[in-house]
Amino acid sequence: MDKNLINLWLLGSFTYLIRGIPIYLWALLRKKVSVSIQILSTDELFRTFKDWFDNQNLQGSTHLLEANYSQKQPFFKLTVGFGNHYVKIGKDRFWISRTRLEKTTDYGRTPEVITITAFGLNRSAINELLISVVKIKKTPRTKIYLWNEGKWSMALARPKRLPSSLHLPGHVWGSINTHLKNFEKNKDFHDQNGIPYKTGICFHGPPGTGKTSLVFALAGMIDRNVYLMSLNDISDRALASAIQELDENAILLIEDIDTYDMSQKRNPEEKKKVDNNLTLAGLLQALDGYLAPVGLIIIMTTNHPDALDPAIKREGRIDLMLEIGNWDQAFANEVALKLNVELKNNGPLNPAKFIHHQEHYVTSSIL
């Protein structure tokens, strides 16, 4: 074999073997002379850190930014972007890295992680940084949790929605307030008689009338977090576990309950289905609340309440059935006057369609 060919092969092999050494040495050195922490996007500290970063005027120290546009406040907000950032905070310098994890959740969301590295083996710089982060004045938020891989994980935290931001007839809020006052007043009765202290509410009506927005406005009004539950590909046991893992005074939201087969009226000739999917019996046990935490509010939404099995709607499982319907003529005129727009039609009006035709408003700003 040609000697030059052998030498070339040896040189290539040697280069291939040593190419990872600088990366390995850098990783080893970084491990020995630095302290790092990781903050997952499922932790509420993740959002707090991003808000803190926005208020530090550190954007000039990094060239990787993320722009977020707000339609209600038309300006671009710059925040820490994906990649590595070298910033000076006070007398200390940090590497801040924001990356996406490879695995996605069942809801299609890709978790993120922020890694903060301080040079030196003393943890005081990291501790002081975290203390300053959690001390910032935070905008009141409603946290939204999703059930994923056997646990509740925070998906996002959105600013609390005020009831005054919704255009709904007065009887809607009146019914809700009366029900919640009675629920709060009857806590001792539940405790003394061993009755699960929980309540069920069902908002029903045509699409686009503001049912889901009403849930979040209600959560903001009574200062509760929302746990969003999908009943797709879930078993009786998994639903029971999800109920048990809820925090006290939570709101469990199940949207479009009528779209799930097990919730619909039973066919007497149909044999009982036995598999790994959720059954009507499993759903009814969850609504009964014997595994539920104290103060749980279960809210369901549906466009077709008549399609639901009567066992779901009976009192004790659903204590308040409230229709969120189209606006009547009088209320439509009232909203048009508040928004200073012209109302071009008479009769019942779907709120979403009404807002869709207004040049300066989007549905989410009204419903």
Task: For the record, give the distance between the C-alpha atoms at the N and C termini, rounded to a whole number.
Answer: 80 Å
Radius of gyration: 27 Å
SS strand fraction:
15-25%
Helix content: 25-40%
Q: What best-fitting shape do the alpha-carbon axes yield?
A: globular
Q: Give the uncertain stretches in residue-range form.
A: 69-75, 269-275, 358-366
> Which structural category do the helix and sheet elements fall into?
alpha/beta
Short description:
The chain has 367 residues and is α/β, with parallel strands linked by helices.
Describe the structure.
The protein is an alpha/beta fold and 367 residues long. 35% of the residues lie in helices and 23% in strands. It has a seven-stranded mixed β-sheet, with helices on one face. Strands 1-6-5-4 form a four-stranded antiparallel β-sheet. It has a two-stranded antiparallel sheet with strand order 2-3. The longest helix has 16 residues, at 3-18. The relative contact order is 0.10. Residues 69-75, 269-275 and 358-366 have low confidence and may be disordered.
Secondary structure layout:
Elements: H1 3-18, H2 21-33, E1 34-40, H3 44-54, E2 65-69, E3 76-80, E4 83-89, E5 92-100, E6 112-119, H4 124-134, E7 141-148, E8 151-159, H5 170-185, H6 187-193, E9 198-204, H7 211-222, E10 226-228, H8 236-244, E11 251-254, H9 280-288, E12 296-302, H10 310-313, E13 320-323, H11 329-339, H12 351-356, H13 363-366
Parallel strand pairs: 7-10, 9-12, 9-13, 10-11, 11-12
Antiparallel strand pairs: 1-6, 2-3, 4-5, 5-6, 7-8
Helix pairs in contact: 3-4, 8-9
